[in-house]
Design goal:
The structure is a homodimer of 236-residue chains. Chain A has 236 residues and is mainly α. Helices cover 51% and strands 10% of the residues of chain A. The first copy, chain A, has ten helices and five strands. Chain A has a three-stranded parallel β-sheet with strand order 3-4-5, with helices on one face. Chain A has a two-stranded parallel sheet with strand order 1-2. In chain A, helix 5 packs parallel to helix 6 and helix 7 packs across helix 8. Chain A is globular, with a radius of gyration of 19 Å. The interface between A and B is medium-sized, with 24 and 24 residues. Chains A, B: It holds the Pfam family Epimerase. Chains A, B: It comes from Sinocyclocheilus rhinocerous.
Chain lengths: 236, 236
């Protein structure tokens, strides 16, 4: 995952992971891990000051399926938590990264191609809160000069780590079942109102985005990671 | 204003006004008025239950200029207050009206004509919170069946009441100064990135919207109301 890559580049002790839950043993052993409650502003400030934090990567959120099952908690974590993070980053001059989602578009957005800027009328509390995160981040940038960055992730299919919940969880299960056919078909199974083709020309010109893996390399890499499970499933 | 029209139609005692501040004497005398704090959820429930409320018209907000001067309070009133109102309306089966604003579009939206559904990337906390209100209202409608209605108001120039603050306040002042030229020019003075022409075809077909006043009738009506102040200004 991201933490592993960051620690490789910046040093194990320069990247602190946090959660409100105890992680598995191998996470504790891999580097610094502390308690952090996104809804406790003082706790966030304390962590920033005590650890001389300069970058903040904010992943806390209840995703689509989990959020719909608990709208009130999703609103707290995804919106109040966002506000706390924006404030702590602004107050302490941190650089802030918050991911958004392709779900931030919604059924009325153009799907093929899908431009960066278009109609955004999504239909879940998770997606609505991500539109809010995009707008608030831009607002804090213009208003306070906050260095805010955001990327709209598609559903992430991970071979080496389990996702926290939501649609992404379905991907992992589905990817194990369908990988032999075509990875792309999984996307349509889960959310057929989502964008089909992204126009990534802004990302290519603004910050030099380019993909490292084509579809064949992607499938090969996934098979290398999940090989044993996958073969077992296909054997059935 | 709206309260006067509603009381005329539904009866003086069937429309309750509220605020966290004491209103002027003539407001007290015009019908029921009570304390209501949008940030106190229990207080909202109490009012709804004790008064058998069935419709809720939610105007509490810090507008553009005032909001920028106090972002934290604007976020509380405009976003947390919104969430409280959505919850109380859903919980008690109220019909809910919340105005939005033409400021909910932003500098990247098409201006001429301006469609209902398009890019919305506004740049003030007030406008960002109104995009959030639109999306949350739609979400609560789809998720819980809430009867949520929303209208995007332009800057409102009132002849018979003073606005609460924000850009609208500038309008009243400007309208007194510029009314002799052309009322439309005021809009460009205040916010020249705002939409120029609205495509109101959806409103006309969805709920029979039509205008009662053209520009000549509008100016005549305003002059009748503000005649004395206006003549005084022009005399200088």
């Amino acid at each position: 995952g991201l933490a592993k890559l960051l620690r490789k580049q910046f040093g194990k002790y320069n990247v602190i992971l946090s959660d409100i839950r105890k992680p598995p043993a191998h996470v504790y052993q891999s580097g610094p891990f502390i308690f952090s409650d996104i809804l406790d502003y003082k706790n966030l400030c304390e962590i920033v000051v005590n650890n001389r934090i300069s970058w903040l990567i904010h992943y806390s959120a209840l995703l689509s399926a989990v959020g719909e099952a608990n709208v009130s908690l999703a609103r707290d974590v995804n919106i109040t938590g966002l506000h706390n993070v924006l404030d702590v980053a602004t107050e302490h001059g941190l650089r802030l990264f918050i991911p958004s989602t392709i779900g931030a578009f919604g059924p009325m957005s153009p799907r093929n191609p899908n431009p960066d800027l278009c109609i955004q009328r999504p239909r879940t509390i998770y997606e609505v809160s991500k539109v809010h995160a995009e707008l608030m981040g831009e607002y804090y940038h213009h208003r306070y000069g906050l260095d805010f960055r955001c990327l709209r992730y598609p559903g992430i299919i991970s071979a080496d780590s389990q996702p926290g919940g939501g649609t992404t969880a379905e991907y992992v299960i589905l990817s194990h079942l369908y990988l032999s056919f075509q990875i792309v078909s999984v996307l349509f199974l889960v959310a057929d109102s989502w964008p089909m083709v992204f126009d990534d020309s802004n990302a290519r010109s603004d910050w030099g985005w380019k993909h490292n893996y084509g579809l064949p390399e992607l499938i090969q890499t996934m098979l290398n990671f999940t090989g044993s499970n996958f073969r077992m499933l296909r054997a059935n």
